[in-house]
Amino acid sequence: MSRIGKLAIKVPKMINIYLEDHQITVKGPTGELVQKIPKEIHICLFQDIIQISKCEETLLARQKYGLIRTLINNMILGVEKKFEKRLQMVGVGYKAQIQDNKLKLIVGFSHPIIFQILQEIEIFVEANTNLVIRGTNKEIVGLFAAKIRAIRIPEPYKGKGIKYNNEIICRKAGKSGKK
Question: What is the pLDDT of residues 52-71, one digit of tens each?
Answer without folding.
Answer: 888 888 888 888 888 999 99
